[in-house]
Amino acid sequence: MPNSGLPDFDHERQVAVAAAEEAGGLLRSRFGTARCLRTKGDSGDVQVDLDLAAEELVLSRIQHHFPHDRILSEEAGLLEAAGERTWLVDPLDGSNNVAIGLPAFVVGIGLCLGSTPVMGVVHEPVTGETWHAVRGHGAHGPSGPLPGPSPILPRTGPVVAWTQGYAVGRGDATAKALRGALEPGCRRVLQLWAPLLGWSLLARGTIDAFVGYRAEGVDLPTGALLAAEAGVDLRTLSGAEFRPGFAGDDTGRSFVAARGGTLAYLLREVGAAVERTSG
Question: Which residue among 106, 150, 189, 268 is the one 20 to 30 A from 83 at the CA level?
């Protein structure tokens, strides 16, 4: 629930929304002309020229308004500065989709104090919609507060988004076990190639849950804050409270995000899968 006793980060939110929407306009106008520049590692993930163009725009806006803040960006890496404030920028979440002409991508901008996310913005260029959240003040979109998913487990099984980090190999036993547990027990398992899009769907209540294994740190805090402020519970695979962060190795970035009966059901399923791989 919104808590007026916490800072509202209104200036930061306004700057982030404006930057994300400006970058979104650039991406929308040039979608269909993107050029693949390189692949990243062995995962098959790609970088396209629009990644760099959108990133340059977003970084320039943040640095203009907040020149003393650190920035961690998907393509540029860490831009050091003093202080505890770190901006997280994913200028084009869904580059692989753009590379094949699939219009499923977003722009994500977040702000952390230390390791705690306090503000997050997700903009979808295709629809022109923007969703944003501030810690303690709720999550909002064009139509007002975001409702989050229903806490009731659907009779036909939940619709669940899935993400895994770039470092997770194709033969990773835990990843295979988790997907193997989710596929038969859920109505749909969505692999969107754009985690922030999954988080926005969850916050809007369009899907029922999100499960991640060793997720990428640059977009996790932004998306998780959006969902949490919409009333979603965030748990580790073992059911403990999950604290989304961007630092450290990816072994601490596995989660189940849902509510009520859906959360309890998924924690049983993933818990059993993890136990089988470690037994």
Answer: 106
